[in-house]
Design brief:
21 strands, 8-stranded mixed sheet, Arc Repressor Mutant, subunit A, Rossmann fold, 6-stranded parallel sheet, 5 domains, binds magnesium ion, 721 residues, binds adenosine-5'-triphosphate, alpha/beta
Length: 721
């Protein structure tokens, strides 16, 4: 038996963990120290050396992508197929169990799994039947409540009566929701876990079967397990020391979704014979990247404490780029990526990581403009998001009432009392007479077959579109977009969704207004199309097709949350500004701030060779202009580990890339040192330095009020005094 391949590429501590006799184990180690690698090799070891059948092993990871990769790596090490091996996410494994034991789980054989969108629709309908007002009981909030209860293992019947009217009402809804799902055989994501737990807990035969079957259970990213997931592991391993978990308390980033870092402590209590192994050598990043990440995380309290080192050499210092605004930030990042590719680097080794999804748009646009393939993970591309499509559908319908797809999309979004029956009737008329839905709707109203309520609602909708069109006539493009998102009721709709994604959707709609404001009409105008038409075409072209395929070599865009566990040679951590990262909601909350700092640590430690941190001195995001301070996390990095880079020294971009926006106030080349200037926002100041030329020309100005700033002349509204 050749075991070399399993242990040859491991250090001593890793080898110890991989080859240890069967016992409960906790591998507690920092980023990039080989935890996932240890877990994979451990499984191979158990099969190859321990003689355990693949079917006696279970491994749980955080995403399906990670599960797939883990299986491939084990197969590669052992050179055998491993379909008997259960590798998956908690949800995936729970689903499998419930399918096998639907009777014991008290589910119909044909039960259906709902994703969170389906769940929300069910909740909306339920609130309706219960005569509860959407605005007082926002469906999202109800959904959040129900899922949080389930994640804690709590059924409606278990909840204590607190006397609090809000609580009481939520419980009534929760109970009705449970009954409805049971009646219709529907299972939401949280239910998968809870029901799976109950299945094992309440059916001793089933539990015993799986306890006997799974001789070894492995969990990656253990720090982000929640209460019910840990309860699962306890049941399956009860009385045995066969749980092997790897994790990093410094990378716990899902506290806001119920993950319990305390599970690491509970593990140590519940498995008293466990062994802890710490891995301290990092194999991923260069010395400077690692030191900078270590320095930042050292500011958190209550850490379990570990320090990482590497013998990979110092590498380059982390680079810091102070962009003068968000456009400049995106130009810089994309130009750096192009340089990297020109020098032989591969696109898929490159990642742009951001705190919030709305930040992706500008990078997407710049990547597209330069023909660089890219892929956005864990979230839809900006123009593909439902709220953006809804807003665009209104605009399209205003421009062309016969646009049936747009008509269908928004006729009842937000809900305005036009029921499925009326919509079906419209479709029927349209089909029979080969006319558009809009014309069919007018015909239906004239037929007077609808109820008065439905007729009024339908008239209301048609009038709304006409009125919007009229009001928009003389407005600038961005004002048109603003009018539509507000008057269509879309902003109001998402504002009501207090929890979860509602806020993000409102922000995305504001960002759409922003996109319209910055839309460069002159540059795009080719065939005498109207500005609105051009903008809509631009949006359509930006969505869908042009995104790279799964396997194509492309630049990776994702939130820092979705980058967990991954690694890239070149990483850009963008938007390092107070209020964005750390997020506004966390700056005054100690616990949340520490989670943000862990997130920063996760982001930085994704980088193998080069890490760029960028921030903008002024940013227009969510439709607002702000002058944020650089993120506090940047100040936590010692200056010797970081080098400030300038646009001029680092990139050379064609002057045509930046179109002057305010030609009236530009007088490129007309500035002298010491010249007095006036800026719209910053007031009066004196020119200290000038660099670059043409569209690239920048000046450094010492403003009386606002202090020293670098400004790009082609953008800044500067006038000489
Ligand atoms: P994270 O905390 O980010 O999930 P991790 O601790 O799981 O990181 P891995 O992803 O397993 O770390 O490993 C990080 C990188 O280091 C990988 O590219 C892996 O192949 C490499 N690596 C790990 N251990 C060794 C080793 N002993 N020799 C060479 N390379 C190693
Ligand atoms: Mg890992």
């Amino acid at each position: 038996m050749d075991i070399t391949s399993i242990i040859e590429s491991l250090n001593d501590a890793q080898r110890l963990a991989v080859t240890a006799p069967s016992q409960a184990m906790l591998i507690l180690a920092g980023a990039g120290s080989g935890k996932t690698r240890v877990l994979v090799h451990r499984i191979a070891w158990q099969i190859q050396v321990g003689g355990h059948a693949a079917h006696s092993i279970m491994a749980v990871t955080f995403t399906n992508k990670a599960a797939k990769e883990m299986r491939a790596r084990i197969e590669h090490l052992l050179n055998i197929p491993t379909h008997n091996l259960w590798i998956g996410t908690f949800h995936g494994i729970a689903h499998r169990l419930l399918r096998r034991h639907s009777k014991e789980a008290k589910l119909p054989e044909t039960f259906q799994v709902m994703d969170s969108g389906d769940q929300l629709r069910v909740i909306k309908r339920l609130l309706n039947t219960l005569n509860l007002d959407d605005s007082k009981w926002p469906p999202r909030e109800v959904q959040w409540y129900i899922n949080a209860q389930k994640d804690e293992g709590i059924r409606a019947r278990h909840s204590m009566e607190t006397g609090d009217p809000y609580q009481r009402q939520m419980l009534i809804v929760y109970k009705a929701y449970e009954e409805l799902c049971d009646r219709s055989g529907l299972v939401d994501f949280a239910e998968l876990l809870l029901r799976g737990h109950e299945l094992l807990r309440d059916n001793p035969d089933v539990l015993e079967f799986y306890q006997n079957r799974f001789q070894h259970i492995h969990v990656d990213e253990f720090q982000d397990t929640n209460t019910i997931q840990y309860a699962w592991l306890r049941l399956l391993t009860d009385g045995k020391d066969n749980l092997f978990v790897v994790g990093d308390d410094d990378q716990s980033i899902y506290g806001w979704r119920g993950a319990k870092i305390e599970n690491i402590y509970s593990f140590q209590k519940h498995y008293p014979n466990h062994q802890v192994i710490k891995l301290e050598q990092n194999y991923r990043s260069t010395g400077n990247i690692l030191k900078a990440a270590n320095k930042i995380i050292a500011n958190n309290t209550g850490r379990m404490g570990k320090e990482l080192w590497t013998d990979a050499g110092e590498g380059e210092p982390c680079s810091l780029y102070a962009a003068f605004n968000e456009q400049d930030e995106a130009y810089f990042v994309v130009e750096r990526i192009r340089t990297w590719i020109n020098q032989g680097g591969s696109r898929s080794d490159t990642a742009i990581l951001y705190r919030s999804n709305a930040q992706s748009r500008l990078f997407e646009e710049k990547l597209m403009a330069t023909g660089t393939p890219y892929r956005v993970y864990g979230g839809l591309r900006f123009f593909d998001r439902a709220e953006i499509k809804n807003a665009l559908a209104y605009l399209r319908l205003m421009a062309n009432p016969d646009d049936d797809a747009s008509f269908e999309r928004v006729i009842n979004t937000p809900t305005r009392g036009i029921g499925a029956k009326a919509i079906d009737d419209i479709r029927l008329i349209a089909r029979d007479q080969s006319i558009s839905l809009w014309t069919a709707a007018v015909a239906l109203i004239n037929q007077r077959n609808l109820s008065a309520r439905a007729t009024n609602a339908l008239i209301g909708f048609l009038e709304l579109i006409k009125a919007l069109n009229q009001q928009a006539t003389d407005l600038a493009l961005y004002e048109k977009v603003k009018l539509v998102v507000e008057k269509s009721g879309l902003i109001g709709l998402y504002q009501k969704e207090k929890m979860d994604k509602g806020e993000e959707k409102v922000e995305n709609l504001e960002e759409l207004v922003n996109a319209a404001r910055l839309f460069d009409f002159d540059q795009q105008n080719e065939e005498g199309m109207s500005e609105l038409d051009l903008f809509l075409t631009h949006a359509a072209l930006e969505s869908g097709d042009s995104q790279a395929d799964d396997y194509e070599d492309c630049v990776q865009l994702m939130t820092i949350h979705s980058a967990k566990g991954l690694e890239f040679k070149l990483v850009f951590l963008v938007g390092m500004e107070e209020g964005l990262f750390p997020s506004q909601q966390s700056v005054d909350d100690f616990v949340r701030l520490e989670e943000e700092r862990r997130l920063c640590y996760v982001g930085m430690t994704r980088a193998m060779q080069q890490l760029y941190l960028t921030y903008a001195e002024s940013r227009r995001l969510y439709g607002r202009e702000s002058y944020p301070r650089p993120s506090r996390f940047l100040r936590e990095i010692p200056s010797e580990l970081i080098q400030e880079v300038r646009l001029r020294a680092t990139v050379s971009r064609p002057a045509t890339n930046i179109q002057p926006k305010h030609s009236s106030s530009i007088s490129v080349g007309s500035y002298k040192l010491g010249q007095r200037v006036q800026h719209e926002k910053f007031g009066e100041g004196v020119v200290l330095q000038i660099e670059g030329s043409g569209a690239q020309e920048r000046v450094q100005v010492n403003f009386k009020q606002a202090g020293v700033k670098w400004l790009m002349l082609s953008f800044a509204k500067l006038t000489t005094l």
